[in-house]
Amino acid sequence: QVQLVESGGGLVQAGGSLRLSCAASGRTFSSYAMGWFRQAPGKEREFVAKISGSGGSTFYADSVKGRFTISRDNAKNTVYLQMNSLKPEDTAVYYCAARTSYFDFRPDGMRYWGKGTLVTVSS
User: Fold this and answer.
1) What percent of the chain lies above the pLDDT cut of 70?
2) What confidence category does residue 122 fall into, taking pLDDT thresholds of 50, 70 and 90?
3) Strand runs (DSSP E) across 1-123, as ranges?
């Protein structure tokens, strides 16, 4: 069993930055690929970024590529999402999620979810 707790959300102006953190419980954190998803009001949950268990591979949605960076610290059981050049359309609840496979990162394919943290970007 893995429990995920996100933090770091808040209100920021367009063009600003935030760093989200996701702390995981358990001793097998490095065996899980980790990802971030987001859900804006009235929209479906969508993939944002993922990182392999070792941290050696990453992948981003086109909408955030070049602005967001995912990373992890396996010694601290934590995954991060650095968000730069934020836009109003980045406003959403951001969720951390985990699964054993690095592939097929879809909302219905994730094994564990956090409860989310709200990011609001004002124009």
Assistant:
1) 100
2) very high
3) 4-7, 10-13, 18-24, 33-39, 46-51, 58-60, 68-73, 78-83, 92-99, 112-113, 117-122
